[in-house]
Amino acid sequence: MEILAWNCRGLYNDSSVQALITLIQQKCPSFIFLCETKVRDRDYMDQLRLRIGYMNCEAVFSVGQSGGLAMFWGDGLDWRLTGFYGHPTTVERHRTWTLLRSLSDESSLPWVVVGDFNKLLHASKKVGGNPSREGQMQLFRDALSYCDLFESSIVVPHLVFVVDSRLDRVVASSSWCDIFTHARVLHLPPIHGDHLPILLGTFYSPLPIVRKRFRFRFESGWLQNEACDAVVHSGWTNVVHGRPMSQVMQKVTATRLSLLQWQRNSLGVRKREIELIRSRLEVLFPQLPSAANQQEITLLSAKLDSLLAAEHAYWKQRAKISWLADGDHNTKFFHRKASNRRAKNRIVGLYDEDGSFCTTEQGMESVVLNYFKDMFTAAPIANDHLRSVVDLIQPKVTEDMNRSLSVEYSELEIKTTLFQMYPTKSPGPDGMPPLFFQHYWESIGSDIVVAVRSFLSSGQLFGPVNYTHVCLIPKVNNSERMTELRPIALCNVLYKVCAKVIANRLKTILPTIISPFQSAFVPWRLITDNTLLANEVSHFIHTKRSGDDGVMSFKLDMSKAYDHMEWNYLEAILLRLGFNASWVGIIMQCVTIVRYSFLLNGQPWGYLVPTRSLGVGIVEKHEKYLGLPTYVGRKKTETFAYLKERLSKKLLGWQGKLLSGAGKDLLIRVVVQSLPSYAMSCFLLPKSFCDSLHQMCAKFWWGSKQENRKIHWLSWDKLCAPKEEGGMGFRDLYAHNLALLAKQAWQLLKFPQSLLALVFSAKYFPSGNLWDSTLSSSPSSCWRSIFNSLVTLKKGVCWQIGDGSSVKIWLDPWLPRPYSFRPFGVGSNMAALVTKLLLPDRTWNIPLINSMFDHEDA
């Protein structure tokens, strides 16, 4: 069944009617909704209905030369379809949302709404033209939230209007999506007018439905069954031969086969068992109590709890929800989350290098393999060119560093590395997630330690250990090009332990090797340092008004930098830095002994042996660097509108409707209120902007039903109070913003020799004392934000006395007195230093202190 919606811009001209007939012949829709028909009489609409071959028609006729709606359909509906046309003028558009709400109250049937709403949901859906007002978009989002409507999955080759903004859309209720789980919306190519037709297919499946090849994955729910331990023990204790790492891989394979056999023979159909037990309990509970009756109820209840726990673990593992620890068990939330993840990540087709759109599995496999084959194929490098670059590197690794890297790895070190991994992360080709190795560490840990040590001591990696699945995750909705897919390597856990234990050792010496201009992955350095520096540079360029010399900046886009790294270059650089040759050999084994297969819609395809694993772009005014704007002007609300858009997508979707109170509490505290934290670490957002985020959270918290009024029983300020004081412990985002910026100021105090501190010091506090800093005449947005947080920092900062030569007795905070940290009273010499109160042996001068201060301070 397919549904066609189109803003036809008039049906009295032959070109529009012919375009409609062509669409019907191509798509055979069961329902057609037309906007702006401009038809004024019933007879013409009946003639058109007969001409296009539909049994039913309802129309709203135009007034003069504007407006007009029409719906054509066949027979038999058990759900609601509404064709919708939003009011074309902004002043009257509130009536559109009132109408949508009233339609929602008329019926509880599953509902889908198609048409031209004449309003954007989010500013990012428009390119060019005047920006859409946030308040108007918020009214649209509020109406959809009230009606329990959200946007369906969409395949979008184009936007849907000549000014590049998406006004035509399909929104559906969660109950409708539960019925039509494979529904898809396509925006068809333009045929007439400036609006694109949209086609809703309720059973859309461009790929042939074939039985998937089975991929083993260890289920966390199996741990609820006591028999699983015996099955694992049986598989792991099989007699194996070869090197230690080969033996572990053989044991993993044997255990996997044992678990597969056990799953097929013993576990059965869990849902059916749950239904049978519940049916039996319904029979037992009304019966008169007896010993046998109570015993059976107890046994069945225990078994039911075990089955429900396993079912919960099964769906939670597929939903990939790490933040929801408690509050919601095996509910529709997990089912819908897993289904939506599967639908969102599904790739229906890919464009190849020639621009052809491939939809078959073989065609897409060819596109993927050709793309990565080109990426992973080494390019020849002349030795003299390589040497000329390598010779510029200064050796930095000392003998002491090499000795610390070469110390034998302890069992505790290897175990700690394994337990640092998230238990249910997606497994590699062997199907075993970190949870398996963590749970059974007591019985299999010794084998893991021996295998890892054997590789790290010999430098020889067993090839199959590094066989890797590359999962292709869409960066955008309905990705159609390889550049829109994010490759994620799914390695075997045994290899990840080897690589991570090496990385943990390397972290200890990274600060001495990596230049101060790089902050990522280096302990005690923050990625926000680079963001703050980039903003400072951008601000300088933007405000430079004098001088004969112009300035400019380049943004180097290191596209797929790791994948394009030549192996011989990497090895030469490591040796030049001074790393021991044997240690470099271990690194190169990890890098070079790798084989890839690519997961396409959940199935592995191809087999690639890589031989290696720069573009320049102009930074526009509001281009992002490391995910944040490089320049922030006066229009902060507009600049950070993307934060509100991301927040609304989290709150206005289906998932809030399916969560319990505890689940909504966790979603707000753990996910929603963490979304703006990265931006808040660098910029002070307007208080009005933070208040608008609070309002969105409050609406989500208090309202999830279709009442006429959603009562907020407590103010947001009271909800932000700690739970022991009667609140919910939610964050006040503005206070949180100031706290994060105060942390940046603390970093400037704590690490005065960092690159960021040196730059800010030279520009804003040349004396070197942050407390003496000024806002200056033309501060950057970042510095203005940090400067405003100093008031917050001063409330809690206190000097720790050393020799006292830098701390003023009466002006600086140094006493352990709550809140003020300053002594009472006023001294005769306000510039006197604490060193005056110390004896030569750095002990306190008690008589002098008693004479200068009151008893409490002394």
UniProtKB/TrEMBL annotation:
Residues 473-595 form the Reverse transcriptase domain. Residues 5-178 form the Endonuclease/exonuclease/phosphatase domain. SUPFAM superfamilies: DNA/RNA polymerases, DNase I-like. One of its GO terms (molecular function) is catalytic activity. It holds the Pfam family RVT_1. Signal peptide: none annotated. InterPro entries: DNA/RNA_pol_sf, Endo/exonu/phosph_ase_sf, Endo/exonuclease/phosphatase, RT_dom. This is Reverse transcriptase domain-containing protein.
